[in-house]
Amino acid sequence: MIKVAIVGYGNLGRGVERSLKQNQDMELVGVFTRRAPENVATEGAQAFHMDELNNKRGEIDVCILCGGSATDLPVQTPEVTKYFNTVDSFDTHAKIPEHFSKVDQIAREHQSVSVISTGWDPGLFSLNRLYAQSILPQGGTYTFWGKGVSQGHSDAIRRIAGVVDATQYTIPNNEVIEKLKGGEKLELSTRDKHFRECYVVLEAGADEEAIRAEIVSMPNYFADYDTEVHFISMDELNRDHKAMPHGGTVLHTGTTHEATKQVIEYNLHLDSNPEFTASVLVAYARACVRLAKEKQFGAFTVLDIAPKYLSPIDDATLRKELL
Amino acid sequence: MIKVAIVGYGNLGRGVERSLKQNQDMELVGVFTRRAPENVATEGAQAFHMDELNNKRGEIDVCILCGGSATDLPVQTPEVTKYFNTVDSFDTHAKIPEHFSKVDQIAREHQSVSVISTGWDPGLFSLNRLYAQSILPQGGTYTFWGKGVSQGHSDAIRRIAGVVDATQYTIPNNEVIEKLKGGEKLELSTRDKHFRECYVVLEAGADEEAIRAEIVSMPNYFADYDTEVHFISMDELNRDHKAMPHGGTVLHTGTTHEATKQVIEYNLHLDSNPEFTASVLVAYARACVRLAKEKQFGAFTVLDIAPKYLSPIDDATLRKELL
Question: What are the residue boundaries of the Meso-diaminopimelate D-dehydrogenase C-terminal domain, all occurrences included (chains A, B) (predicted)?
Answer without folding.
Answer: 119-272
